Amino acid sequence: MPPRRPRVVILVENLPVPLDRRVWLEATILRDAGWDVVVIGPRGGPGMDRLRDEIDGVTVLRYPQRVAEGLSGYLAEYLGSLVFSASWFIWARLRGPIDVIHGCNPPDLFWLFGWVGRLWGATYVFDQHDPSPELSLTKFGSRGVAGRLAHRFTLAIERASYRTASVVFSVNESCRDIALRRGRLSSDRVVVLRNTPDVATLRALVTGIRPIGRGVGYVGVMGSQDGLDVLIDAWARVVAEPDLSDVRLDLVGDGPMRAALQARVAGDRSLASSVRFHGFQPPSAYAPLLAACMIGVSPDPPTPFNDLSSMVKIMDYLAIGRGVVAFDLTETRRLGGEALVLARPATPDGLADALIGVLRDPAEAARLEQVARARIDSLTQEWEPFGTTLVREYERVRPRRT
Question: The whole model's pTM is what?
Answer without folding.
Answer: 0.84
